[in-house]
Amino acid sequence: MSDFFRNYPTGFYNIDKVKPVRGTFSTNILTRIKAKPEIFKNVFTYYPYRIEEFERPDTLASKYYGSSDFAFLIFLANDITDPLYEWPLFGDDFENLIIEKYGSVADARTGIHHYEKILRAEVPASADQSKVLEKVAIIDKETYDDTAEASRKIIYNYDYEVIKNNKKKNIVLVEDVYAKQILNELRNFYG
Known about the structure:
Layout: E1 10-13, E2 24-27, H1 37-41, E3 46-50, H2 57-65, H3 71-77, H4 83-86, H5 91-102, H6 105-110, E4 112-120, E5 135-139, H7 141-146, E6 152-156, H8 157-168, E7 170-174, H9 176-190
Antiparallel strand pairs: 1-2, 3-7, 4-5, 4-6
């Protein structure tokens, strides 16, 4: 991803604010762009994608768009502004996050994150109907204790982090036929 910031605007910065001016020519990494929501409402411009184990944005961009230069497009389409925290973690990286947040994997597996009441149970797909997803509400400990055992569940810290990490694996990819057009428009925008 060494080319990620190549299309960002650059400028002269007087970092230490002294005279005579001793600045440097730098890339403005704080620049953020956001795609128009209408673009991603058009289902013909993108398609859903599930990130595979250990897949990185640059390798996915290279695989799908033919160049890692298009990693920015994956971030743009998915409103990812911080790839370190908004991209799913795998293997040791995920385990290190758990240890950093909860002290150990064992503590995360036994520590309670929250309680849930099942409002609607999941119904598997059949020949006559599509799958119905489970619907839950987060409840406090007292409500949990008063709820029938079949209608409640505990979400442990580890499970919560797994669920949150798995949600990050579902992204969209802009159709490759639009990638170069978007890149050219951004280059024109930044001058």
